[in-house]
């Protein structure tokens, strides 16, 4: 029984580590790429107007999903047209990196 639990725990922790590393992008590259986002989302990830969301401290996975959805035209509300155009300039690696950067800023 101990062997089964130990094996399950080891596999679970390995899966957790792999899941986290699969999310992690290059924060420095993301900061560089996010320069184009600063006009609306601020230099520190805090939206410059109440209608622009704060990105600082958002979950990395959420940011990746949102950017991919904008890029695919799956998000249509609010500023979706602007975001779709911005996301269209990003490849998958860019999206990973930008998401990692904003997630690294911590909630404000």
Blueprint of the fold:
Elements: H1 2-23, H2 27-33, H3 38-41, H4 60-72, H5 80-88, H6 92-104
Helix pairs in contact: 2-6, 4-5, 4-6
Description:
By secondary structure, this protein is mostly helical. 63% of the residues lie in helices and 0% in strands. The chain is built from 6 helices and no strands. It has helices spanning 2-23, 27-33, 38-41, 60-72, 80-88, 92-104. Helix 4 (60-72) runs antiparallel to helix 6 (92-104). The relative contact order is 0.20. The model is unreliable at 3-21 (pLDDT under 50).
Mean pLDDT, to the nearest integer, reads: 85
Total E-strand runs: 0
| Computed Rg | 17 Å
Instruction: Please tally the helical runs, counting DSSP H or I stretches of 4 or more residues.
Output: 6
Helix percent band? 55-70%
Biggest sheet details: none
- The secondary structure category is mainly alpha
């Amino acid at each position: 029984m101990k062997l089964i639990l130990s094996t399950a725990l080891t596999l679970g922790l390995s899966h957790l580590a792999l899941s986290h590393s699969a999310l992690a992008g290059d924060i420095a590259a993301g900061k560089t790429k996010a320069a184009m986002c600063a006009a609306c989302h601020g230099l520190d990830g805090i939206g410059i107007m109440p209608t622009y969301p704060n990105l600082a401290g958002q979950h990395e996975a959420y940011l990746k999903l949102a950017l991919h959805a904008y890029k695919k035209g799956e998000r249509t509300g609010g500023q979706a047209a602007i975001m779709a155009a911005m996301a269209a300039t990003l490849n998958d690696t860019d999206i990973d990196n930008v998401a990692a950067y904003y997630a690294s800023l911590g909630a404000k």
